[in-house]
Amino acid sequence: MSTWERYKEAFQRLSWDDLDHVERMPCFRDGFLYGLTGAFVLGGLRFLQKGRVLSACNWTVGGFVVFSIASRQLCLYQRREQLRRMNITFKDSIERRTPHVPPKGRSEDFVPTSELVAAAEEKLSPVAAPPTEEK
C-alpha cells in the first residue's frame, strides 16, 4: 500500500462526528492554546515589522499551525514519558513487595512476580477515551 493510499484511507475515515469529542483528545487543549498565543504573537510582530495586514495574517495562520502541532507533540511526548516512569515505578514496587520464594506452608497463596507484573501491565495499558453516554 502506497503512502497516498494510506492518506486517502485515513481521510475517508474522518467524519464530522469526530469533532464532537475533540475535548477528549489528549493534549488538545494545550496545543490549541499555545497555537493561538504563538500565532497572535507572530502575526503581531510581523505586522509591526512590515506594516502589511495580509502578510501578518499569513504569518498568523502559519504560526498557529506550527505552534499547535509542536506544542501538542511535546505534550504527548511528556505524557508518554510520565506513563513510562509510572509503569517502571509500579513494576519496581511490585517486585520489592513480592517474595521470590513462597512462605513455608503457604505455597498455594504464592503468585510469581512475572504474573503480577503482567497483571499490572494490563491495568496500566494506555487508556482509551471514556465511553460516551447514550441518551
TrEMBL record:
Keywords: Membrane, Mitochondrion, Mitochondrion inner membrane, Transmembrane, Transmembrane helix. PANTHER family: CYTOCHROME C OXIDASE ASSEMBLY PROTEIN COX20, MITOCHONDRIAL, CYTOCHROME C OXIDASE PROTEIN 20. Belongs to the COX20 family. GO terms for cellular component: mitochondrial inner membrane. The keyword Transmembrane helix applies. It comes from the Eukaryota. It is found in: Mitochondrion inner membrane. The chain crosses the membrane at residues 31-48, 60-77. Its main location: mitochondrion. Coiled coil: none annotated. This is Cytochrome c oxidase assembly protein COX20, mitochondrial. GO terms for biological process: mitochondrial respiratory chain complex IV assembly.
